[in-house]
Amino acid sequence: MLLKLSLTGLKGRWRDYAVLFSGLTIAAGIFYMFQSMASNDDFLTNNSTVAMTGMIFQLGSVLLAIITLVYILYANSFLMSMRQKDYAMFMMLGAKQRKIALLIFIETFAIGLLATLLGSAIGIGLTSIVSQLLTNRLNIQVTHFSPFSSKALLITLIFFTMLFLLAATINASSIVRKPILSLLKANETPAKSRRKPIMLLLEAIGGILLLAVGYYMMDNVATFALLALVVALITIVLGTYFVFHSVMIFILNLLKRSDSLRLKKLNNFTLSQLSFRIQDYTKMLSMVAMIFALALGALTVGLGFRNEIPKMTEQASTYDLLLNNAQDADQKQVEDLNPTLNVSYQIKEDEDTVYFNQEQFDSEPLNAIYYDTTPQKTAYSGEQLANDEAKMDNLRVLLLPEQREKELAMLPEDQFAGLNHQTSSLQVVQVNDFMTQKDAIKNIVDENVQQNPSLAQDQLAMNQKYDIYTIFNETFSGFEFMGFFLGIAFLTMLASCLMFKILSGAASDVARYDMLNKIGTRMSLLKKSIRREIAVLFLAPGILGAIHVLFGLKMFTGLLSEPYAGIWLPFLIFFVLYFFYYLLTIWLYIDIVLKKKE
Description:
This protein is 73% helix and 7% strand. The protein is of the alpha+beta class and 598 residues long. The strands form 2 sheets. It has a 5-stranded mixed beta sheet with strand order 1-7-2-3-6. The radius of gyration is 32 Å and the shape is elongated. It is a multi-pass membrane protein.
């Protein structure tokens, strides 16, 4: 009988549980995907190019696990608060507390286990899609990879099982310890909203000052290093709390003093609704603002890394293509690139020395990179190379491994011609656009390795631009994917938590809207009031979280040359997803408070 009553209660709140279930499913799916990418040993061992990507996804798993823990505990407590009246009624009908605790435990654990299993199944499909996108992004062919990983599945099941066991235990113990009367009246006990104006003003000023300090530290992270991160974390968290605990109330009080505003339609009722519940929402809004900043920041930085790949490749390499022993290369492929620069330097060598024709370098100086505060490109003539060993090292790195160990010498043209050694050539090439021609360049690079087998064992070479591009692409594409999926997971969780918080107070609002309906208020005005109230609760943390991101991007100036480039794209993605949750919340809220009035 008790189980039947419980199922009836779950059916009555299926929308609320559907939101929780979908959030948990997304979290489990993305967690499985991260683990599958990070823990597939055969895949990582046989594809060294993506080894760094595995480490990046492992880091993402840790971050996702932390946020998932907060989400489960927070969101699940809201559902329990909405069902506590049901449990109180069961107790009043004679159900034993031990039975109620067992029932709550089974409900929580069963929902979590089902969400984990479904999420893992979705994660397998998601892993297949992402692996293809990732390998295409890295321009590589991978082996020994399967979307299904028993190790990743086991880790996912163990992690989420432990989380739901913890949540189920907390739910069961918290409900049975409360008196029946407290369970019945919990939602009818409002938070006190009367506070002294002077304290409100001091808190508002303090919150703004704390945020200012945090933003200043993020803007000067290069100067203060670790101290800046610690101070920024503390001040921004506290500043966010005080902004919602004081500034928002202060603004609402000012708006309520304007007769032209508050006496228009249902504005006074809407403002009173916000003022009435704002203190109860302070912790939630603060948490949502911080997670919103983390989510949007992860997505923005992740997509920002994509833009850095060609820039960093360009800064780290002088030539688009390098051919050792170019006399043996297929020059037809080089000509098909339509190069803007195509120069061959003659080389002669003996057992101890590699000789170059100085006149050739005087005619076509060697491109090089020197480091000041930022990488700078320059060019060295043959005379400069001959008189400076440090500058000559820029030529050394372009040679074959066995040549780099020898002495390098620049000789006048007549002396070079007089050497009785076999002549080879070093060919350097530049093209109009490396990124659009990189596939064709890769084919020539592979041919160069085949013509010069010693390059295949040379792990420290990194003299080909394509090799440099591959390393940057591997690392930052991993961050791009991790940031994107972490951002989506975080946004889903924070929007769900905010939705739960708003819906948890809907039951106590039924009487207020019923009263307005009885005195003749039009239904359109009631719905408009609801839309405005919920819009404020969504916009406030969203706007503050976006401001956090705009200042927080300053911390990435050392990694991103243009951290704000293309920022509209992640903001647009977030706006669309966030707006969807706003519309969903309105629909659920109206269904609760106005469903009897249609």
